[in-house]
Write a structure and sequence with these properties.
The protein has helices spanning 3-15, 23-30, 34-46, 74-90, 93-109, 112-119, 139-148, 214-233; strands at residues 51-54, 58-61, 150-157, 163-175, 180-186, 191-196, 200-209. Helices cover 45% and strands 22% of the residues.
């Protein structure tokens, strides 16, 4: 393989490793000599790749944004552009600006062929629709509570406009075609619930963080949703 392809392959291999991996293991996987591997590691590090190495332990790719030239092919570029433009259409102002900024950063590091795929994509998102219901509580308030794992007390109205007060553990925001929803654990119901963000009349921080890890709670909710879908479409054998 070419040197450029080899360097990108090495990056992909390191991305897939959860723990440090020795030079001998990497060299064997790439079918190159250890001497070549050391040279490739040094070149990637000089280009800004956050590769950390320790004698007797191995190499690991630390977290951090690193997009070298030629990293994305045309299909990968179009997939990213489609996703970012979808976010620009259906996200809030904060995510819309973030999508535009991310697109500009990606364009700056693409090679000419991939950049042409960015400027003239073969795939496009559908119509933006007619907008979303107005939120009383800014989505950024909910997003911040999610990131900090903070409990929230909310005033909420259901589809029949019946008001209630809830103490919830916010887990994620969902951006659907016509509405936005907040996925949360509801202490009142003792179960996972989704709340339309435009029906949240007020939200205030409760004392302390909610227990457990958000990622674990979100995974449990996703598994529950999958089980519900499976039961929904499984024929009754009785």
């Amino acid at each position: 393989m070419s040197r450029t392809t080899r360097l990108l392959t090495l990056l992909q291999v390191l991305r897939g490793k959860k723990r440090p991996v020795t030079a001998a293991t990497l060299a064997a996987e790439l079918e190159i000599s250890e001497r070549t591997l050391y040279r490739d590691i040094a070149e990637l590090t000089a280009l800004g790749a956050p590769i950390h190495g320790e004698a007797g332990v191995g190499y690991v790719l630390r977290s951090g944004l690193f997009l070298p030239p030629l990293m994305l092919n045309a299909d990968e570029t179009e997939a990213i552009v489609l996703g970012l433009r979808y976010v620009d259409q259906r996200g809030d102002e904060v995510l819309g600006k973030a999508a535009a900024d991310a697109l500009a950063k990606i364009a700056a590091v693409l090679d000419p062929k991939a950049r042409d795929a960015l400027l003239n994509p073969t795939v496009m998102p559908g119509p933006a629709g007619y907008g979303f219901p107005q939120n009383v509580v800014p989505l950024n308030v909910l997003r911040q509570a999610i990131r900090e794992q903070s409990k929230l007390r909310i005033d909420y109205a259901d589809a029949q406009q019946m008001p209630s007060q809830r103490s919830i553990w916010p887990l994620a925001l969902g951006f659907l075609n016509e509405v936005r929803i907040l996925v949360a654990w509801c202490e009142l119901r003792g179960a996972y619930r989704t709340f339309r963000t435009d029906r949240i009349a007020a939200a205030t921080a409760a004392d302390g963080r909610y227990p457990g890890r958000r990622s674990d709670l979100l995974r449990t909710w996703q598994q529950q949703m999958q089980q519900d879908e499976t039961r929904r479409f499984t024929p009754d054998k009785n």
